[in-house]
Amino acid sequence: MTSAMPRFRFLPEEFKVDEIPLYPPTGEGTHTFVRIEKKLRTSEAIARQLAKLVDVPARDVGYAGRKDRMAVTTQWMSVPDLDPTVALTLRLDGAEVLEAVRHPHKLRTGQLRGNRFDLVIREVSPEAEHTARARLAEIEKRGMPNRYGAQRFGHASRNPDRGRAILLGQKSLRDRRKARFMISALQSEVFNRVLEERKAELDTVELGDVARVTESGGLFLVEDVEVDLKRALLFEISATGPIFGTKMEQPSGRVAERENQIMEQLGVPVGSALIPPRGLRVPGARRPVRVKVGEPVLTREGDWLRFVFSLPAGSYATVLLEELFGELIEGRSSS
After folding, report:
1. Which residues are catalytic?
2. I need a labelling partner for 53 at 20 to 30 A (CA). Which of 4, 28, 137, 265 fits?
């Protein structure tokens, strides 16, 4: 029996992701930026293989963000003391070096502008397509909810629990990168819950919100709702939610009460009680509750839809698909 639900990522080639770099490599320096195309491999696995091939510690290989495994993706990685001509000859399992250019320093987590997606969605009925187009028009106007996708939380959504144990000193990990990732899953859980319980529309702000300026990324406390609401409707600013940490910008009033209550419910110490384990920095940040979807194009190609669009760094294509189509089937599974 054919499923009535749309299906995506049926093949890796039907989920393409191209990283949009924050800046181009300069052509000079002690590091080499290599642009990798990979398929059915994680970013971590490729980074480890690169490190092994050129005989450097795995921690010295940098990359801006993790890319999907069940996909065809491109991204930049940095390797110290690697001749670009040698880089182009490296043989990687499930990946290929497309470019290699020198740069003065290592590529750090978060140093990307965003990602461009080229997806195929199968088994979409005319009614579902009509609904998706109407929802996309609304999202272009108001923005996409910037919640974290399910993949952020790991198998059976266990990563937030692991992050909580690390944060509270109940568990330790020698691998600091992995420890930070687990804590970030807990931060993501808190943000998603705050977004879920926020009653205000995405294109509005509340008194006491920490708002983010779209163009500059600057943060400020909302004190004049009437003035700032007009700016929010124009997408000049957006409300933010918490990525908890010791240096996070704090909201005020009812917004602060709501965020603190949710953190307490999820076992996260609030305010000065938040003391990260030794050796782990958890500065925190504010994440906008919505983002713009860049140049979305949804076209019918025979029996499926092709969807091309871009999202800022840290935002999830799967979230956008859920907003447009509701529940979907991922991959070849029947349920």
Report:
1. 68
2. 28
